[in-house]
UniProtKB/TrEMBL annotation:
PROSITE patterns: RIESKE
Protein's recorded name: Apoptosis-inducing factor 3
A single GO molecular function term of this UniProt record: metal ion binding
Species name: Thryothorus ludovicianus (Carolina wren)
GO cellular component: mitochondrion
Entry keywords, A to Z: 2Fe-2S, Apoptosis, Electron transport, FAD, Flavoprotein, Iron, Iron-sulfur, Metal-binding, Mitochondrion, Oxidoreductase, Transport
Any Pfam family the entry gives: Reductase_C
Task performed by this protein: Induces apoptosis through a caspase dependent pathway. Reduces mitochondrial membrane potential.
Signal peptide: none
Localization of this protein: Mitochondrion
Main localisation: mitochondrion
Family the entry assigns: Belongs to the FAD-dependent oxidoreductase family.
Domain (Rieske): residue spans on this chain: 60-155
GO biological process terms on file: execution phase of apoptosis
Length: 596
């Protein structure tokens, strides 16, 4: 018996002549107050389908059929690239071996019930189709056809597919964009972050061929926002989620530097700050949040930053090099910025109200271990205090005065004290907003207004993991999933959200991975060694594990995420067994409930 694997990748592009439904590669323009505004950037052709060339195909023997047991994965080399070979329920499957998000080796991930989960950030891919099923990331895996002959496994694959290791799902295009009234659209998406982009892409993937317009206050097309604090000197084009030609090819129109000032849900009209009005049929609100600012004297002086854009991040790095930096707030953003600047700045000081960083999220013990790591990297903490005044010299920041009386030298100040939902423009709209400003949605991301959906950091939604408690989960992965669910339900699929929150933070070359929703946890069970920064923390509420965090113990967070995604409960008394089976024996049977 042999196994052969052959690439099966959907045709991604048409010829250059078919690329634009208008017959031209020209941008749409409308004028407001005499100012020309472009819907589309200059259109460029994307390479046509490369998989029809026989010379591009490679075939190689990779293993014997008995080399893999059920539930096992193997990374196999075809000479010009690698694939991931999987055996589950007696069948072989083969897909790309790298996660399209950040390139994690999927062979180190978690295989369970027909999908593989990334060990780094939790994205999930169907092993039969390669399709992405949970996030983060936008692309799917290439799928390779498997054949069995004479007890050997052969893989037949496109060389280019093996090198690219990602696949964009087939998408529809707008049928006749040139016939539309420029002030009217079928779908209007307010916000161009992960939720907005995934919504637009999902609509096209599902065959939606009517007009889609995204609008954003930002000057850039959608970009990888987590990198603003993790990789601060990245330029916008380096962190773009899609190249500009992608939006033109699939007729996803993007209005940049455009702010919606009000929404009339009865007339289905969005009113922009500059007076332009746009009618819509379906609306997605994915405006994210707005950073909180300091309330003290001097808060608006030069060199005081909320990092909101690539330009903000780039400017901070430039100004902080060999200078004194004060960061206010031991939030994820504040801590990541401190870690990034520690080797570049002359000094980094961090001011925080709590007595340890991340106390509410990771707990006291993990927070102390992280704090020690920062102190070992020259970051100075000023805890249980806050800023009372920012002082200037010749118009620029010179000192940060704390309520404790301490005065810190400061050339740059970065503020990371939290955020509020960017929903102020909806106050008179009739859309249900809670007391904290979050948009209230159901499991299908629908608001109380028919045809109006909301997604991302600005919403509260029922989380199945916590008995459908309404929660706000401002995570990058969750924004992706919200956008997908909203799109499916715009198309009346009736799909309810079902996902496990997953996040990560990166500091000094180390990552903490986290899955679940630990809000209100009452105990933390630690496995491993906090001093060595190699640990797993299980967060429990009553007797139930509600979240898990780890450092240097991959892929346990992805393993636990799969358990929770399957609807299984991990009790506090089972934590020792879970840890033992995961790392001492390598036994994965507890994932599917077949073991004890």
């Amino acid at each position: 018996v042999e196994v052969k694997i052959e690439v099966v990748i959907p045709e991604k592009e048409r010829s250059k002549e078919e690329m634009s439904p208008n017959g031209k590669a020209s941008p749409l323009i409308y004028k407001v107050n005499g100012t020309a505004r472009h819907y589309h950037l200059e259109e460029h052709p994307i390479a046509s389908n490369p998989y029809h060339n026989p010379k591009d195909v490679v075939e190689a023997s990779v293993c014997h059929v008995k080399d893999l047991e059920n539930g096992q994965m193997r990374e196999v080399d075809l000479g010009c690239g690698k694939a991931l070979l999987i055996k589950e329920s007696g069948e072989f499957h083969a897909v790309g071996h790298k996660c399209p998000h950040y390139g994690a080796p999927l062979v180190k991930g978690v295989l369970s019930k027909g999908r593989v989960r990334c060990p780094w950030h939790g994205a999930c891919f169907n092993i039969g189709t390669g399709d992405i099923e949970d996030f983060p990331g936008l692309d799917s895996l290439p799928r390779f056809q498997v054949k069995i002959e004479k007890e050997k496994v052969y893989i037949r694959a496109s060389k280019q597919a093996l090198q690219i290791q990602r696949r964009t799902k087939m998408m529809a295009k707008c049928i006749s964009l040139s016939n539309y009234n420029l002030s009217s659209t079928n779908v209007l998406i307010i916000g161009a972050g992960a939720a907005g982009l995934v919504c637009a892409e999902t609509l096209r993937q599902e065959g939606f061929s009517d007009r889609i317009v995204m609008c954003t206050m930002d000057r850039h097309l959608p970009y990888d926002r987590p990198k603003l604090s993790k990789s601060m000197d990245s330029h916008p084009e380096q962190i773009a989620l899609r190249p500009k030609e992608f939006f033109c090819t699939y007729d996803i129109e993007v209005l940049t530097e455009m702010q919606v000032a009000a929404v009339d849900v009865k007339s289905k009209i969005a009113v922009f700050k500059d007076g332009f009005k746009m009618e819509y049929n379906k609306l997605l609100i994915a405006t994210g949040n707005t950073p909180k600012t300091l309330s003290c004297k001097g808060k608006e002086m030069e060199n005081v930053f909320n990092i909101r854009t690539p330009e903000d991040a780039n400017r901070v790095v430039k100004l902080a090099t060999s200078k004194n930096v004060v960061i206010v707030g031991a939030s994820f953003l504040g801590m990541e910025v401190a870690a990034y600047l520690a080797e570049r700045a002359h000094s980094v000081s961090l001011v925080e109200l709590e007595h340890v960083p991340f106390k509410k999220f990771f707990g006291d013990r993990v927070g102390r271990a992280v704090m020690k790591m920062f102190e070992n990297n020259r970051v100075k903490f000023y805890m249980q205090t806050e800023v009372s005044e920012l002082r200037e010299q010749e118009g620029k920041l010179k000192e940060v005065v704390l309520k404790s009386g301490k005065v810190l030298r400061a050339d740059v100040c970065v503020v990371g004290v939290g955020a509020v939902p960017a929903t102020g423009f909806l106050k008179q709209s009739g859309i249900n907003i809670d007391s904290k400003g979050f948009i209230v949605v159901n499991k299908m991301m629908q608001t109380n207004i028919p045809g109006v959906f909301a997604a991302g950091d600005a919403v509260t939604f029922p989380l199945a993991l916590r008995n459908n408690k309404k929660v706000n989960v401002p995570h990058w992965q969750m924004a992706h999933m919200h956008g997908r669910i909203a799109a499916l339900n715009m198309l009346a699929h009736g799909t309810e959200i079902s996902t496990v929150p997953y996040l990560w933070t990166a500091m000094f070359g180390k990552s903490i991975r986290y899955a679940g929703h630990g809000e209100g946890f009452d105990d933390v069970v630690i496995q491993g060694d906090l001093d060595e920064l190699k640990f797993v923390a299980f967060y429990t509420k009553s007797d139930e594990v509600v979240a898990v965090a780890s450092m240097n113990y991959d892929p346990i967070v992805s393993k636990v995420a799969e358990v929770l995604a399957a609807g299984r409960t991990i009790r506090k008394r089972d934590v020792d067994l879970v840890f033992f089976l995961s790392f001492r024996t390598g036994d994965m049977s507890w994932l599917t409930g077949k073991g004890s």
